[in-house]
Each structure stands twice: as C-alpha cells, then as structure tokens.
C-alpha cells in the first residue's frame, strides 16, 4: 500500500466535499488495515455537510466523512489472531475508552471519550482504506454481502432500540417516522417477534416501502401539531383493538413525540430514537400520570453479532432499503450526497468503492 496514495472524501466547509489524500495512522498491534468496499450515507453525514454540525458536535476543521461501512482486510497487526487478509468485515465505528464508569458498566455507547468515525474531530471511513481496531471488525458470513455489512450500522440502532424497549412476541409496536431509522427499527422489531407493527409518516413513498418490508399497517399524517388528537384516534383505530405497548419515535419532533406519548397505552413505553429537534415541548404530565416510560436511545452496544445473525438467517433483509448506488469519484460523491439530502425516493444511498 506504500505505492498507492490513500484518498478520502473530506468535508471542507458547508456543502463542500473534496476527494483528497488521507494519510493513515501507523498500524498498531491490535489494529487492521481495511480496504473500504461499501459505505452508506447517514442523516448525520448530511447534517454535517449542510450545517457543519449535528446536535452538539461541530466541525471546526477539515474532516473525512462517513461511518456506515464494510470492507476487506488487507493487513493485520502483530497481535491480531481473529482476522486475516482477505476477510470481509463490517466495522463498528465507535472506539470507546474501556476505562470510564460507563464502559466498565457495559454501556460503552455512553462513553464520554468515544472516538466515532466522522464525529468531529475524528475522521470517518469514506476512503480507500482505513485503520481500525480488529475487535471492532466483524467477519461477514458467506451469504452476507459487503453492502449488507455496511447496513449493520443503521440496523444496530434499531436492534439497540428494541433491546432497550424489551420488544418480544407480545409487544405491539407503533413507529413514528418511516425514514431509514424508522425502517430498520421496523425490521428489527419484527425480528424480535413483535406481532403487530403500525408505522406513521407524512410521505407516501416511504410508507409504501414500509409496507413492502413488513409493516402491518401504515398511516399518512400531516405535519401540523394541531392534528395530534386526530392522528392518535386514527392510530388507535388502525391498531384494530390491539394496544400500543411500545412506540418508537424515529423522528424527534414536537408532534411525533406528542403523538407517541398520547398513543401509547398506560404502563407502556415510548422510545426516543430520532433527534430531529434539540429541544421539544411535549405533554409529559398526562403521560406520567399514566405511567408511560420514556426511554432514550444513543447509538448501540454489542449489536454487530446479532445483526449479522439476523442478516445471515434471513430474519432481516436490508437490501430493499438500498435505493441508490454511486462510485467514488468527485462528481459521484457530490451527486450521492445531493441525492441523500433531497430525500424523496432515496432511503439508503451507498458508495461502492
């Protein structure tokens, strides 16, 4: 690899991406060098491109973008025993410290010193090659493609949310939002055994995809906060007498969280997965009076083995969510991000490197 200059997609400013050289760090004894083959575009990547920030994370200097990824091992460190060159792997993008209280408790996703691909100031993975810890690279089963491997990252959010909400064979589920995260949460909830899943969105195309990938019913709603009561009535009617045990809010807006809290049965759970607004105003007091539990979700922990099991066994099929594919040229990188930002028919935009 000395002869070949490693290139990556750098975020240089608002709406400014450029493929430039990316010098790799030295390969440590526990590291592997991976040639990237599939990298997906996440909503956070688009936020960074459009505003140079996502939630409290702000891009202050040029940064390599991308974190949903899979590739092929090219070189392993001296102490790596689990992987060899040629292995196809999916990469978990967050490196936690393993020393803090959260890491020792097993909730390493909450580590305050997490180094996460393409979360400033850490560089991401939309590059020819990256160096990453071997224990965060998971070998793909033979029947799981590299694109599916890259999809383990968004799917992990849905899997972690289902674990947090204790989804099982007696849990009826409502999902607010049929974007990429709403759809992977739908797939995960079905794999966890949820008997009835209803999904809500404002977009007909996304609702049709949700129906195709396994939603029992879909509901189109407006964006107006004034329509919450009407939406709740429609949701409960659509559930067909089944109570909403758990609602996943995969949008994170005033209206969606308000609808979620009001639709969920007394003693049920609302899981906040999406982060559309930094601050929201919602009817917490009535929900508290009905003992509706509010559960937060941040990234994931220990999800890749289960995601790969779901994909390998056929319990989950993420292929219908990959709607657009691009190569790794300057023009295609720009087109891919424009396609993802427009939304519409685009669900998951994937780079094939």
TrEMBL record:
<feature type="domain" description="Enoyl reductase (ER)">
    <location>
        <begin position="13"/>
        <end position="351"/>
    </location>
</feature>
<dbReference type="InterPro" id="IPR020843">
    <property type="entry name" value="ER"/>
</dbReference>
<dbReference type="GO" id="GO:0008270">
    <property type="term" value="F:zinc ion binding"/>
</dbReference>
<keyword id="KW-0520">NAD</keyword>
<keyword id="KW-0862">Zinc</keyword>
<dbReference type="InterPro" id="IPR013149">
    <property type="entry name" value="ADH-like_C"/>
</dbReference>
<protein>
    <submittedName>
        <fullName>Alcohol dehydrogenase 3</fullName>
    </submittedName>
</protein>
<keyword id="KW-0560">Oxidoreductase</keyword>
<dbReference type="InterPro" id="IPR011032">
    <property type="entry name" value="GroES-like_sf"/>
</dbReference>
<dbReference type="Pfam" id="PF00107">
    <property type="entry name" value="ADH_zinc_N"/>
</dbReference>
<dbReference type="Pfam" id="PF08240">
    <property type="entry name" value="ADH_N"/>
</dbReference>
<dbReference type="GO" id="GO:0016616">
    <property type="term" value="F:oxidoreductase activity, acting on the CH-OH group of donors, NAD or NADP as acceptor"/>
</dbReference>
<keyword id="KW-0479">Metal-binding</keyword>
<dbReference type="InterPro" id="IPR013154">
    <property type="entry name" value="ADH-like_N"/>
</dbReference>
<comment type="similarity">
    <text>Belongs to the zinc-containing alcohol dehydrogenase family.</text>
</comment>
<dbReference type="InterPro" id="IPR036291">
    <property type="entry name" value="NAD(P)-bd_dom_sf"/>
</dbReference>
<dbReference type="InterPro" id="IPR002328">
    <property type="entry name" value="ADH_Zn_CS"/>
</dbReference>
<dbReference type="InterPro" id="IPR045306">
    <property type="entry name" value="SDH-like"/>
</dbReference>
């Amino acid at each position: 690899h000395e002869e070949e200059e490693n290139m990556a997609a750098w975020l240089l400013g608002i709406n400014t991406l450029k493929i430039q050289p990316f010098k790799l760090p030295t390969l440590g004894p526990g590291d592997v060098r991976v040639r990237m083959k599939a990298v997906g575009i996440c909503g956070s990547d688009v936020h960074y491109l459009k505003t140079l920030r996502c939630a409290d994370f702000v891009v202050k200097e040029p940064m390599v973008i991308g974190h949903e990824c899979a590739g092929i091992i090219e070189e392993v460190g001296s102490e790596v025993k689990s992987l060899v060159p040629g292995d196809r792997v999916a990469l978990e993008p967050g490196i936690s410290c393993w020393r803090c209280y959260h890491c020792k408790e097993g909730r390493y996703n909450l580590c305050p010193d997490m180094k996460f691909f393409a979360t400033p100031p850490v560089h991401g993975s939309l590059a020819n090659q990256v160096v990453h810890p071997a224990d965060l690279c998971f070998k793909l089963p033979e029947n799981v493609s590299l694109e599916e491997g890259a999809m383990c990252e968004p799917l992990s959010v849905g899997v972690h949310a289902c674990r947090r909400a204790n989804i099982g064979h007696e849990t009826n589920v409502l999902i607010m939002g049929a974007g990429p995260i709403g759809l992977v949460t739908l797939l995960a909830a079905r794999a966890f055994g949820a008997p009835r899943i209803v999904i809500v969105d404002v977009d007909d195309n996304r609702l049709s995809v949700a129906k195709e990938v396994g939603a029992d019913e879909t509901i189109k709603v407006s964006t107006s906060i004034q329509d919450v009561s009407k939406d709740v009535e429609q949701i409960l009617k659509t559930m067909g007498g089944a109570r909403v045990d758990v609602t996943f809010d995969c949008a994170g807006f005033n209206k969606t969280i308000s609808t979620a809290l009001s639709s969920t049965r007394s003693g049920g759970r609302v899981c906040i997965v999406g982060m559309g607004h930094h601050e929201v105003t919602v009817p917490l007091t009535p929900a508290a009076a009905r003992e509706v539990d509010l559960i937060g979700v941040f990234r994931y922990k220990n999800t890749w083995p289960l995601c790969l099991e779901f994909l390998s066994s056929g319990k989950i099929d993420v292929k219908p969510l990959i709607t657009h594919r691009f190569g790794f040229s300057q023009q295609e990188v720009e087109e891919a991000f424009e396609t993802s930002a427009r939304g519409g028919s685009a669900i998951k935009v994937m780079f094939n490197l």
